[in-house]
Amino acid sequence: xxxxxxxxxxxxxxxxxxxxxxxxxxxxxxxxxxxxxxxxxxxxxxxxxxxxxxxxxxxxxxxxxxxxxxxxxxxxxxxxxxxxxxxxxxxxxxxxxxxxxxxxxxxxxxxxxxxxxxxxxxxxxxxxxxxxxxxxxxxxxxxxxxxxxxxxxxxxxxxxxxxxxxxxxxxxxxxxxxxxxxxxxxxxxxxxxxxxxxxxxxxxxxxxxxxxxxxxxxxxxxxxxxxxxxxxxxxxxxxxxxxxxxxxxxxxxxxxxxxxxxxxxxxxxxxxxxxx
Length: 276
Prior knowledge:
The chain is of the alpha/beta class. It is built from twelve helices and twelve strands. It has helices spanning 16-19, 23-26, 42-50, 70-75, 86-93, 113-116, 132-144, 162-167, 191-197, 217-220, 238-243, 261-271, and strands at residues 4-6, 36-40, 54-61, 81-84, 101-106, 122-126, 149-152, 177-179, 201-205, 212-213, 225-229, 246-249. The chain has a seven-stranded parallel beta sheet with strand order 8-7-6-11-9-12-10. A five-stranded mixed beta sheet has the order 1-4-3-5-2. The longest helix is centred in the middle third of the chain and has 13 residues, at 132-144. The protein starts with a strand and ends in a 5-residue tail after the last helix.
């Protein structure tokens, strides 16, 4: 029998993870294993469970207990389920639960970048990308287009932030990822040197002198390639670009000089995917 708890007191402390805590408060940088993230929709929650994430509680409209959430709840028989009518839950979260089901989950222990990059051929490195929607979209493209792993720099948006998880459609649980470096001082140096020592050639997606087109056959022929993607607006740092083995551009028409970083990532992932 599902462990349902009717939501009557919107100030109950156990509901703070859904209502009042920010992404930064949910995430514990000092003790990552003590942190929480929020997964939204039955599909995303299923992928998180499949990846081994531990649920803390559910929040959903009452009708979903025996509906779309039933298979999830059967997998988590002892996890509390906070439930109520749509209007009550909307007053709690500040918005209608358009996807019906939320789940608070414990953050997994952070992976080591050396481990997620072992025996892989194509990785993406996200340098200081701060928009959660872009991070989520990049993960979705990475999963769909054959990128083996994603690395984030210390200033990058958290891939387990609520919006990033949602936009990725759960692909943050399909693509291995880790942070490269612990502080701002670790990137681009010695991070780039560490990637090179691990056998990767580095390709900066950037404009400027010395660029080669993304369909250059030499790039596709690289055995191990790290695609470096820069922050919104300013793009990659000059030091990063200078230190990379390749500077890569996507040929464009009609005077357009660049794409949104998530769109550029999708193009580069497809064009530079590892061939058998």
